[in-house]
Fold these 2 entries.
Entry 1:
Amino acid sequence: MGAFFSPFINKPVNVARIMLKVLLALVPGIALYVWYFGPAILFSITLASITALITEALMLKLRDRPVTPFLRDNSALLTAWLLALSIPPLAPWWLAVVGTVFAIAIAKHLYGGLGNNLFNPAMVGYAVLIISFPVQMTHWIAPQGLGQSELGFLDQLEYIFWGALPQDMTLDAITMATPLDTLKTHLHLDQTVSQILDMPIYGRLAGHGSEFVSLGFLLGGLYLLATRIISWHIPAAYLGTLFITSGIFHLADPTHYVTPMFHWFSGAAMLGAFFILTDPVSSPTTNTGRLIYASGAGLITYLIRAFGGFPDGVAFATLLMNICAPLIVLYTQPKVFGKKDRVKKDKAS
Amino acid sequence: MRVLHHFHGGIHPPSHKTQSTLLGIAPAPLPSRLIVPFHQHAGEAAKPVVQVGEKVLKGQLIGLPDGFISSAVHAPTSGTITDIGMHPVAHPSGLPNLCATLVPDGRERWEQHDAEDYRTQSAGELQQQLRMKGIVGLGGAAFPSDIKLRIGRHKVDTLILNAAECEPYITCDDMLMRERASEIAKGAEMLRYMVDAREVLIGIEDNKPEAIAAMQQAVRENGMSFEVVAIPTIYPGGGAKQLIYTLTGLEVPSGTLPPDIGVQCFNVATTYSVYRALAHAEPLLSRIVTVTGNVRQARNYEALIGTPIDELIALSAPLPDSSGYIMGGPMMGLPLTEVRVPVVKATNCVIVASEKLFPAPPPVMPCIRCTRCVEVCPVELQPQDLYWFARSREFGKAQTYSLFDCIECGACSYVCPSHIPLVQYFRFAKSEIHAREKEKQAADKARERHEFHMYRIEREKREKAEKLAAKERAAQAAKSGKAEPQAKPEHVSSDIETRREHILEIAQSHVEHTKE
């Protein structure tokens, strides 16, 4: 008999399997990413994964913790994938490495490792990169069929490692600003929303190609909801707040503010709603707290996108709300069975 | 149809109940000896009233209730008391307890016992009888039933028979209802009579259709208006407060008991023994025990209290790869380190374990705050926070997060993907807090005593000095011929007052400290 105390039975679940399901849920989004932007993203995911596992192993060794069980828990892989999906696939190879090392070594292990990080490690990695290397962080690949010229996979690899492009190609010809970035720049040039959205990089809802990648992440998110890996509170409150705030501005001034659907399917909104904000370690544990946390993140995302200095705001919204999570939890403690308001009423009557 | 209420959370572990319900209840043969503990119930142990060497009859009182919450203990069969001393028993502490060893003479000679019609007696008289017949809760807590019937100024409107039997593997209540439903129904009527309840509800989980049918038939045949309610199968649906909520929608307020909201709850097996005690004047001498798990023939036995567990499980023939024993169910049961321990009134089940049935839990991983534990907690606690507080020994915080409302059902541990033994942490925190409170009380007493001691020494010194001074003054006055006024006694008494206040202040500050 294994255990020395009750309960003697356990549900067959474990952390590794939960993380694996989250990784699986990312696959549709990644597949559409490859379809529209070429296979470079697969390379950055692999690079980030290997870096994450090595960093994790080293940190565990340094911290004198067992290496194998923690390497098998898939949590480092998840951080790596989320970070890789947040940075431009054509960025130099060391960008993914630096970001991942920072995420795993500092944001995760220096805070106490799995389960103890105050901030979402992937988002810390992203924040470090966007602040330290803003130029390299803008090398987004143009969707297929939109760039002036296109790179094959080997050409992409060559560029990532040596910064070498095939002859008669310029970086500007194969990369472009993201749809959110383009929108921001052109709004500053006093163009109207409808003028801007006529540009070829925009599709039906948001950016051409990237809108479908977002749709892929939405599908994966629904799978997480269906398998009860995550609860509905965070995605619903996040997307709801983003929809309402952007909706109010859009209704008030449609020439300067894009539709809520544009916000939903742009940037990292879907990834954030289902995969990043829902990180259990750095988000509140109470359901009311989750609603507040995700609403706050939705609001900050919108404010940064519409009025801030960065094209997208998911990472900073996540980090800012991560800071608030412990306080939110403290003030949203649910009443336990036997201490509810209805009990008092029963007693009084 | 009664509207049922769903309590928060709960789990659906595999039930493993079928294997022990294939055969009827079998009487366990007389064991070679019986080991009868004097402390089988909640409260104070019974006081031995027999001597070593004494011959006793079946049903003879051997332990007298001692204290308000206590219950009687009887000789389960006729024979000779060969020993009264410490013997290993099944207890979380693993400590031995005072037991009488009885070697049966095999003749099962009963002590004279006659029953009067219970309707001619008052509730108080009947409660006294139950106390003297050793009737305690057979669901597991072994709380003396007479205490639960002393409802004082409360009015019990609804009497609930707990027949949920929500723990996996255990089937003793199920089989008892299938085979002795009529006696249970009659026992329920006796309980209803004692508390003067308006309605009686019998809550049975819907995975026991045979028991439900048997109880319905018994209630009908006895012309009773009791309601047999099939409740959803969900663990821990048989927790008293959970069952009350399921059936009535009433929430027993934290820190109070069911009679506070007009409900009282009894286990079906207890109800059966109430019937035996009042209708036949039989003390609680045996109970139904499920023997299951890694055995050739899982089955329920009617075993005498005191039957050594090893002799009982031998009846079901444990398989060779058995590796341990659990008393109770797999969710809340107790691992047995020793199989010479006896069946007691609280023993509802013995599970023979094997590595295959109960594999060692995977290594513990850190908590990732996934809140699966919150989702299943029937008390709506935040187990992940309580775990954190227990681990870091922040017991004050654990208490503000309602640690003592935890019913230790184990649902949180069951679902934890990090395999953290959460309940074990909560048990640890509770016992630590109890130990500290005791220590603090003792320390407070010692400090007060010390303070008073110091004060007395000082007072005596001062009084001596004052007396001396007074004497000198008196002598001087006598010399000079003038009379000086005596030292004022108020001075001393006011000093006592300030001292007392000071002590009180210290004590108060400690009380406030614990509340934090």
Entry 2:
Amino acid sequence: MAIAREAEPVGSLADIKEAGLDREDLLGIFRNLVLTRGIEERGHTLYKQGKIPGSFYTGRGNEGAAVGVATAMGPEDVGTPLHRDMGVHVVRGVEPWRIIAQYMGRADGPTKGKDGNVHMADARLGLIAMVSHLPAMLPVAVGCALAFRIREEKRVAVGWFGEGASARGDTHEAMNFAGVKRLPVVFVCDNNQWAYSTPTYLEYATEYVADRAKSYGFEGVVVDGTDVLAVYRETKRAIEKAREGDGPTLIECMTLRMEGHAVHDDASYVPKELFEEWAKRDPIECFRAWLKENADFSDEEEEEIRGEVKKILNDAIRRAEDSPMPELSSLLEGVFATPEDLDTPHHK
Amino acid sequence: MAVKTYLQAISDGLRQEMQRDERVFVIGEDVGVYGGAFKVTQGFQEEFGAWRVIDAPLSETAIVGGCTGAAIMGMRPVAEMQFADFISCAWDQLVTVAAKQRYRAGTPIPITVRLPSGGGFSGGPFHSQNPESSFAHIPGLKIVCPATPADAKGLIAQAIQDPNPVLYFEHKHLYRRIKDEVPDERYTTPFGEARVHREGTDVTLVTWGAMVYTAAEAAEQLEQDGVSVEILDLRTLIPWDKEAVLRSVEKTSKALVLHEDTRTGGFGAEIVATITEEAFEHLDGPVKRVTAPDAPVPFSPPLEKAFIPQVEDVVAGVKDLAEY
Amino acid sequence: MATGTAVDVVMPQMGVSVSEGTITKWLKQEGDAVEPDEALLEISTDKVDTEVPSPSGGVVQKILAQEGETVPVGTTIAVIAPEGGAGEEPAEAPPEPATAKAAEETEKASGAEGETPTDEKVEEAAPAPAIEEPKPAPEADGDGRREGKFVSPVVARIASEHGVDVSQVEGTGRGGRVTKKDILKFIESGAPAREAAPAPPPEAPEAPKAPAKPTEPAPAAAPAGAGETVEPMSAMRKGIAEHMRRSLDTAAHVTTTFEVDLSKVVAIREGLKREYEQRHGVKLTYLAFIARATVDAIGKWPWMNAELRGDSIVVKNYVNLGIAVALEGGKGLIVPVIKNAEDLNLLGIARAIQDVAERARTKKLVPDDVQGGTFTITNPGGYGAIHGTPIISQPQVGILDVEAMVKRPVVIEDDTGKDAIAIRPMMNLCLAYDHRLVDGAYAAQFMRDVKTNLQTWDEAAY
């Protein structure tokens, strides 16, 4: 018996309008979904061409959850997205060519070649770069919320984690602390059912991760992570609630990781039937169907969006490939911050 | 200028920073209503309110991680670990997140973590440690170990002002035992500048924290025997004042490093290595260490006394070197 | 030693790298009375042959290792029973403390001996020479502390900057070590500075200087005749000129030549070359084989590794092998020294030759690298020479000239014992020796051993 609330799907254009999105916004969401997948697909190709060093991770199957949450965030809100959340970077406006440059270890990637793959973020867009120790970003998100609370700003922090990361103590400390202080933070669990090869029943013993929220003194919600609009609507509610001082929410987005942990992993441990079942629930296809059914989404509109995305990606790859490798002189740059580094929007 | 305890100096320094910069806040276990386990923040909550003097749950990870997030959002957090020993619970936040964020993501993390450290009062294995060397090994962290009340005040201000994660090791044994003149006004003591605690000509003794006083007592005794010891108080380990150490070694040609932390991989090893690398042709004897042995800090008084370097140990070590 | 317990005599450690010793002679037999510190037996190790003093007074109760036996360092080789207690004491292991003490005593005894130059046997009475570099270096005790004449880095630096001979300075440090303060005081007192020695060939002590002609002014540059160019001699050229002349004036040079069949060495080198190059980064040259064979033969013919010092013959039990390296463009010759070559196997010597030759050519030798040679090898064969009469580097006794390896028809005995003509890689080795010390038969036997070593090269031994 789930303790968390199970969210409803969004029924109609009117419903979503009530939640704050008009038709233009919906087309924007479609574009962001297609762009998110496009970046990862093109990245995957570049990886197989030997143009991207290290490992390569994708968030296939999670695009709806990432884009849905990010769309609900306000411009002043901040977050700590993880490696399945490319959609967040896309929605917040990170330029695709810089993401590709990051993948390729180039000087123009957000980390200037100091870190790889999705370990990046543009602080100017309110995002904080993840570390590999995934739940470690939750206390950081809570700290952002603490700053907002101390300064009595109506801003909200969003912290992402997966069902695997839910097993670690950082997750508990972050949620407990946020619950105790009623901080303006929304916890988003990307539950894609597999932590590398470990299934959910080896990570937690409740029905849902979101069931835990009650024990921290706030609400837990389970939502279909392939339904971008349902994710958007629940996040929007949670963010507005936090903004008004009513404390945290834990939103659990149920998806399936449609590829391996990284591209070197064939995910042979995932039952074939599971892939087949979830393939029918592809977030982009589902949303496209919804748009056609509810918003008169025409083929011309779709073609135009897909064409635009294709052009963006072609440009991005060309520009990223033109970006130089980092100078060796940068090796020791920035080990320690200088007072000038504090001259950022956040440190005024 | 007034005579203050080491503890009062830390408290004063912290209070002045909070008064002049509203971005500064304090967070930790029992720091608010109770005023801190050692009373460093006594009266702070009354003065600054519960959202700037924050009583946290027993969650070192959330405290340090929270400080990191708040710092990214423009605050100047000061976390108190109730005992330096508990920093192990926040290792990941410091080492994985805070220390590397500027380098890889360009985001400075100006946080200060206060760490009541050191033994000498039967605190046992979990309330007596000096874990500075573990963190000295992590690029991106700064490490401060004041010995005098005046430095304690100046260095806490500098730590808070610094754009990096700073570990501020305050030695519990000095809290109320050491009193000295401390300027009333706000000031900062720069990082990376050693202080000559005592001038001498025969042997350079490099140390920090509470061991400065052990060294000073030993130097008094050694003077009777005609051995002149120069004591350098490093004040900060990262960065550490290599030039001052090398300058002194060039003068004396003999060096000994004293620390309360255990021996193997202690920060003394780094200093010794640097001296032998960079002042080799000035050496007139082996570079020595006097340290705690490689063991957890024992509880029982005679065992603890045998563990922590004592004045006699320092006298013996310096003499051996002087006679070499 | 007023002890009521039996004391073990153990095989002492004569140097850090020594792991075993051979008992050459028991000077006392079971039942003999022995005083503390009285010579008990003679031993032989890789490094030194010495007497072992008794760690305790009493009676030799038991001898546990016989003459000719080789035992690991630390092995109990005899038991000394306290006086009157002999016979009654069982021969089993005495209590631990006594053993430890005995070992310590032995160590002390050998340490004390180490202070006199154990590595140089001085025959006939002679004024004790000043030894600048005692070898083996005084060994560190458990504290990392060194006794005796260790020169610390700062003292070495000050000495070299001020040209001070550290042995002239009175030391007040532990064990008489010269401290920084000592040397600074010495310099302040205005003590005479030593002349900085030129890097090339080492000076012979007491060697007669070239006859001085005080009234003659410094020679002016010679005028150039038609078709001539004139350039001043470099310092190195002058040094070589002076040294070569002086050596001929000093030693009674005789040269003897041996023909060596290198077939076996060629085959072994073929087998090892790749491995040396790939695994060790070392080029295996014929010179390395010859150097190794020579050092081995020196072990049997110690006067080849000696010097005449006044009226004394000073024999060294270490071989510091000089390798003459020609500098490019005929600019001169430098002789870097491979210290303690007797410790090196073929790989070690090959590596050392490569190292010093490289450093000689890239001018990275330090003064210490060219001092203290005890025997020299020169290698003009590399340029095709087949015979030479080299000049000895003073104060050494011999120099071996390595000539070109040439394929020549030689008469050999075939398997059936019949003479046959075969093509063999032959090499001439020309030894110049100082007949003042070494006679023809001695030199020839030395060379015979070098030759045998090369012709019957035993891979396992080297």
